[in-house]
Structure formats: structure tokens, C-alpha cells
Amino acid sequence: MDRNPSPPLLSWDEEKDEEVARGDCIGSTVYSKHWLFGVLSGLLQIINPENTKSSSDDEEQQIELDEEMENEICRVWDMSMDEDVALFLQEFNAPDIFMGVLAKSKCPRLREICVGILGNMACFQEICISISNDKNLGQVLLYCLYDSDPPTLLETSRLLLTCLCRTEVASVWVEMIRELPAIYDSICFIMSSSTNVDLLVKVGEVVDKLFDLDEKLMLEWIRNGAAQPLDQPQQDSEERPVFRIVPCVLEAAKQLRSENLEGLDVYMHILQLLTTVDDGIQAIVQCPDAGKDTWSLLFDLGCHEFCQSDDLPIILQEQKTVLASVFSVLSAIYASQAAQEYLKIEKDLPLIDSLTRVLQNVERCQKKPENSAESNTDETKKSDLMRDELHLKILKDISCEFLSNIFQALTKETMAQGLKEGHLSKQKCSCAFQNLLPLYSPAVEGFLKILHEVDKTLADDLEKSFPSLKGPGKNTILGECHAILKPAWKRGDLFPSGWHQEL
Hints:
It is a single chain. This protein has 503 residues and is mostly helical. It has helices at residues 12-24, 33-47, 56-60, 67-79, 83-91, 94-104, 108-121, 125-133, 135-143, 150-164, 170-178, 182-193, 197-213, 215-223, 245-256, 261-274, 278-285, 288-305, 316-335, 350-366, 372-375, 379-409, 412-421, 426-436, 441-454, 456-465, 477-491, 499-502. It is elongated, with a radius of gyration of 32 Å.
């Protein structure tokens, strides 16, 4: 019977070669240790002082990376995403080699690749902790934020964000950043001048994480002016621009507005974090230009870009977090009661339109099919649904608080203007009342009181739709208790005779 022939037996020499090949593999991969040693040795030769002595003119010149060497080191960059390779690089003290490259090389491409490899290695906990505890390496990496090369800045920011997201080492990096105040200038310069979308997003994520981790650092940056760079002569300091955090964040947000929604979301959240401290609010409202620019941008986003009348309600799912930050910052500025022209209520009536539309769409998004919980048995999907529900609730709460503040600021004249321009209507008021009651009942009562003077018919219709608003005090707990207990009180049978003597 014909059959497939068995593979030929290996000779002793062939078996020996196979064992050697297996021994040359890095971990469970097929990558060669010998080849990797060769590449790292090539890097050592690049940074060897004997190979770099040259005239002063040559030293200032940007060094071009040899094409073959670039291909090989890029292959290491790809390989370093594998944990076995990353651990092997760590064991071979590759981070020290990369630190030498970053300290001595002037080749932007080589610096970018070396930081990129370290960034991949930092994705693994053990290596991330080792890199973070090496203060010399940490400082060299942070010095890369002073670089003028966007790809190097991008990889540095990516590595930094990876480390900041590790709770075990985040505080180490925050402290190192605090010790290098010139980093503030570098980051502000990137935010205010870069047109590289990827870089702006990643730098924004770094700033957002820093502020979220350390309020003290955020306060320092809010109060900061221009820091003196390490290599900047003192006499030239007056010619340098003074960076302020709010205008720089706004500039980056404007750049990303039409390019990257996720990036815009990051910068809106940075502004929201700034408004969690009084110094942050003051940094916005006390500077007329910063306050006006912030309000104008966020007002335009909230009223003319997101959650428009012709958008499907489901689109709100994509915009819920950025809208929550936008309305939160606008609400904080509005509540600050700064005497600024842009905060006049007659100019801000379109916000009522936007807020009620958002509340309507939140309600529609929260309505789920009866069997939705059963159909989504996957734990990841359940987790995503719970997160979406939480973000929708946050957006609803922020929108309600902001809307209640606007309602309380309305006068007879501005309410009449709102009705005339279509910002107020029975449908919009009903939506607002439905969401504001009972938590914001004083704001609704005050609104209705003024509405009775402007449009009594509409006010009466709204009272019919919301019976709890009829009569003074009935929408409050005390009012309801009074309504229930008053008849018994009149009959004299609310308490037994002589109850006060027993006390």
C-alpha cells in the first residue's frame, strides 16, 4: 500500500544544529539572540566616542541613520512588543544602551526608535517598574520632551502615559516632572503650536492623567508662568513667551475640533479638571481673553456642533463624555457670576435649546428593549453597557444643574425673548420640568412665577401637566406633609388628648 513516506532521520550533526537553533531562540519566540546581540552591538558602536569625534561643525549636523541599521533597529522595535523579547532586552541591559543613545545621538530617527522600544517594554509591569526606578533613565526620557522632533515627542509621551497609568510607579513620574519645571513650558509649547494631531492627543492624555493624579501639580501649573529652560541664558528670559495653561489647552482643542473627537474630549476633560479648583476657575474668568475664548469655543460646541436637531439620538452615545465636560465647564463659568459681557443671559438663551435636546436624547438612549439584559450575556458587553449608562447619567445630572442655573437667571424680559425666538416652548419646558423635578423645584417654581406674568396660558398648561406644581409648597416634602396632616389637625385627632403632658 502506498503511503506518505516518513521524514528522514536527522543525522547527529543536524540534530546538534537544531538544538543550537532552539537555544538561540528568545523565549518561546523564533527570534534569534545572536542576531539581536548584533543589532545592540551596532548601537554601542554608534554611541562609542571613538566613532563620534569630529569637528564642531559636524557635531552640530543631524546624523542620518544608515538604512540597513534603521531596518534592523525597527525590527527590534516591532519585536519588543513580545514579552519574551522585552524581558530579554531588559536582561541584556538594553535600557542602558538606549539611554546612551538618547544622551549622545543627534539622529532624530534613532532617538525616536529607542524611545519607542522603551515604550513597548514599559507595557510589561516588571520592566515598567524597573525603568521607573532608574532615576537617570527617567530624567533622560523626560529631557526628550524638550526635543523638537515630533515623532520623538510622540513616543516619549506614549511611554510617559504608559508609566503614569501604572499605580505602582505613577507617583515616581509625577515627582520627577515636578522637579523639572521646564517640562511645563515644553508641554505648553506643544499644545499651543503643534499641528500634529497624534502628538496633540497623546500630550493631552498625559496632561489629563497628571492633573487627575495630582491636584498639587495641577495647581502649580495653573499658577505657572514661563519656566527657565535648562539651556536658556538668563539674560534672554525676557524675550521668551509666558505660557498660560488655559490658552494652551484651548489652542490644542481648536486644532483637534474637526480632526479628532477623542482628542477634543481629552482637552475638554482637562478644562473640566481645572474648574474643580477655585484657582482653575479664576484662571479662566479673571482673564478676559481666556474667559471669552473658553466660553465662545464651548458655547459653539454645545449649541452648534454637538447634539443638533437633525442628529439621531444614538449619536449622543458618541458625544456624551465630551458634552458632559463642555456643559460642566460652561456651568462652572456661569455659576462664578463673573461680570462679563459674554455671560449675559439674553446672549445665552440658545443653551436652553441645547440642554433640553440633550435631556430628550438621554432619555431615548436610556430606553432599552425588555430583553436587552438577557441578550447581552458577554461580561465585556455588560461592562460597556454599565459604563455607557453611567456616562449618560453624569451628562443628565450636569445638564440639569446647568439648566436650573439658567432658569434662575431668567427675567421677565429674557423669558419673553426666549419665547419669541423659540428657545422656550411648551414641549421644551415640559422636558425641562420632567428632568428638574423634584430636585430643582425652587428653580422651576421661580421660572413658573415669571412665566405667569409673560404667558399665563402656557404657565397654566404646564401646571396642569405637572400637578405637584399647583399651589404653594406642594412640591416640597414639607408642603406635602402639610397637605396630608392639615385635615386631621383641624379635627383635633392628630394626637391623643394630653399627649404633651406625657412627654
